[in-house]
Amino acid sequence: MKDIMIFREFYKRNLPHFQPENGIFFITVRLANSLSKHVIENLKNKKQEFEQILKNSKKDDKLIVIREFHKQYFNNFDNLLDKNDQNKKWLLNLDIRQIIISNLMYWNNTEYKLIVYCIMPNHIHFIIQPSRQSSGIYESLTKIMFSFKSYTANKCNKVLDRKGQFWQHESYDHYIRNIEELNFYVDYILKNPVKAGLVNNPELWKGTWVIESLQDIQMQY
């Protein structure tokens, strides 16, 4: 089934080689070592348990199992990031935040269409739709992420007067299948600061942005 074929692993160093044309992706990038090895190990165990459940599921039930696990897994992961008070919160630094925003916006409407972003204290959520280039090929998601991470890491480290890994190598990506799912994740991203207890109203958080109209997004699935 197509939906099962495009199901993504959750946190991994390399983004998938299979990239649907005109695909839209929900991505989370977090600071290096923003979760402990123990927490990551527990998440991996949950992933293995899910794979066993999926393996034993009936063919007609697999999509339901995948979607339910995805929501539970990601919600758990994001809650762990939001509640980690022991972690560095470099992304609250206004200079660092501006570096990230400037880079995201710089490639908007050229390498990708930027739909929404939210910069949290130790991670970023955003949704992009890689653009079709003059060659007819859509921009590589792997290339986009490598460029974003390498450029911003270098600039942010200079602001912090430090060296070393800035972003966690692994990123989270989820292929958005339809407009209902797109609306869900846009709403989730905008409300993340409220869920994390940082503000009482999404509009009070200065690290978010969303496209004026989701109706401008062309989805071909």
Compact summary:
The chain has 221 residues and is an alpha+beta fold.
Report on this model:
This protein has helices spanning 2-5, 37-56, 62-82, 94-106, 141-160, 179-195; strands at residues 11-12, 24-30, 112-119, 123-130, 171-176, 208-210. With 221 residues, it is α+β, with helices and mostly antiparallel strands. α2 runs antiparallel to α3 (62-82) and α4 runs antiparallel to α5. The protein has one domain: Alpha-Beta Plaits. It is globular, with a radius of gyration of 17 Å. 22% of the residues are buried. It is built from six helices and six strands; from the N terminus they run αββαααββαβαβ. Strands 1-5-2-4-3-6 form a six-stranded antiparallel β-sheet, sandwiched between helices.
Q: What are the defining features of this structure?
A:
single chain, alpha+beta, Alpha-Beta Plaits, six-stranded antiparallel sheet, 6 strands
Task: Walk me through the topology.
Layout: H1 2-5, E1 11-12, E2 24-30, H2 37-56, H3 62-82, H4 94-106, E3 112-119, E4 123-130, H5 141-160, E5 171-176, H6 179-195, E6 208-210
Antiparallel strand pairs: 1-5, 2-4, 2-5, 3-4, 3-6
Helix pairs in contact: 2-3, 4-5
Secondary structural class: alpha+beta
Q: From N to C, what is the helix and strand string?
A: HEEHHHEEHEHE
- CATH-defined fold name: Alpha-Beta Plaits
CATH architecture: 2-Layer Sandwich
Number of helices: 6
Gap between N and C termini, in Å? 14 Å
Question: What share of the residues does DSSP label as strand, in percent?
Answer: 15-25%
How many β strands by DSSP?
A: 6
User: What is the number of independent domains?
Assistant: 1
Briefly, what CATH class? Answer: Alpha Beta
